[in-house]
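In the design runs reported in the main text, the only information available to the sequence generator was the tokenized backbone. The following block is the verbatim input for one such run; it is reproduced so that readers can re-run the procedure and compare outputs position by position.
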């Protein structure tokens, strides 16, 4: 079938109207949009689009709704480039710059912003590098016998560990030890840090061994933290009026390994990727869509931001939101690694 400009226009209108209303779109509704052709002509074009698999219609209605193929064609060939308004961009940017250099806060804020702005569920993975690398250490006296070790890694992970003191150490001495180790271990991975720790003695050696152990444990992780938001919002969509659909989605969201596997396999190395229905490669995903992008610092640490929802997703808004939030996280990660 030749995809004429009129058919392209009609398909675009059906997709946009169905996304907005969740109701099959009939020829009369399209005729009211003043396409300059008769309802009979519109019906013929709808029939042609359905015959080619771009549209379908439920048996209870003469109106049409997009198929997976119809959504894909819309995203690739019909959807206009869309950007968040300058006001929305400034508001989101301001929220990110209000938080401290705390990667966990960035992840939670990213998920909340993505869900709220795009009206979908959001999934965000924490940044992770090929291996943990030392960035910064603080030692804080808690009592005469206990100090708290605060370890910050290059990827942004923060770990805390209590240390027993064989004798009281003033805060100034703890600060001096921490500063010494910050210079001594700068940028090292756990193996090199462990090797250097052999030259240390007493409490300084205990601190170094604790750091090396924490880093080794993190390197042995088999999964990433996934931050989620907006699930309750998509439950309000008509697709989830049936309880079994809601339960199915909840069960999928509880399968942490499935979500992580999908995100790692589907996220592009650059730009934004739209995954629709069976393109996700899992039967559980067949009725849904996802928009993904990577963020981070190449060669150091990266993560994935995404929005997730029914195939009836506001694709222009979802793509622009994911694109903007990933660019903000790129900038924040560069600041973090640059120490600015």
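Verbatim output:
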């Amino acid at each position: 079938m030749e995809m004429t400009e009129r058919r392209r226009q009609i398909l675009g209108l059906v997709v946009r109207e169905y996304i907005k209303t969740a109701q099959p779109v009939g020829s009369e509704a399209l005729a009211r949009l003043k396409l300059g052709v008769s309802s009979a002509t519109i019906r013929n074009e709808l029939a042609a689009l359905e015959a080619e698999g771009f549209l379908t219609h439920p048996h209870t209605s003469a109106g049409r709704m997009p198929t997976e193929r119809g959504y894909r064609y819309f995203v690739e060939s019909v959807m206009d480039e869309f950007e968040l308004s300058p006001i929305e961009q400034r508001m989101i940017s301001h929220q990110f710059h209000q938080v401290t250099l705390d990667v966990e806060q960035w992840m939670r804020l990213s998920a909340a912003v993505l869900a709220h702005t795009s009206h979908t569920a959001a999934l965000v993975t924490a940044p992770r590098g090929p291996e943990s690398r030392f960035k910064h250490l603080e030692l804080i006296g808690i009592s005469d016998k206990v100090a708290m070790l605060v370890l910050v890694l290059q990827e942004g992970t923060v770990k805390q560990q209590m240390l027993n003191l064989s004798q009281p150490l003033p805060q100034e001495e703890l600060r001096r030890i921490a500063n010494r180790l910050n210079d001594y271990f700068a940028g090292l991975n756990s193996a090199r840090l462990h090797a250097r720790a052999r030259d240390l003695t007493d409490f300084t050696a205990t601190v170094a061994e604790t750091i090396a152990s924490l880093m080794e444990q993190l390197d042995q992780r088999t999964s990433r933290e996934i931050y989620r938001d907006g699930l309750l919002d998509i439950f309000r969509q008509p697709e989830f009026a049936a309880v079994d659909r809601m339960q199915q989605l909840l069960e999928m969201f509880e399968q942490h390994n499935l979500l992580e596997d999908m995100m790692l396999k589907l996220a592009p190395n650059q730009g934004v990727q739209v995954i629709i229905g069976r393109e996700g490669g899992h039967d559980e995903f067949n009725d849904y869509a996802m928009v993904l992008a990577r963020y981070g610092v190449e060669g150091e640490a990266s993560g994935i931001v995404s929005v997730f929802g029914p195939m009836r997703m506001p694709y222009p808004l979802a793509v622009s939101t994911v694109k903007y939030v990933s660019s903000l996280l790129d900038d924040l990660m560069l600041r973090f690694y640059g120490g600015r």
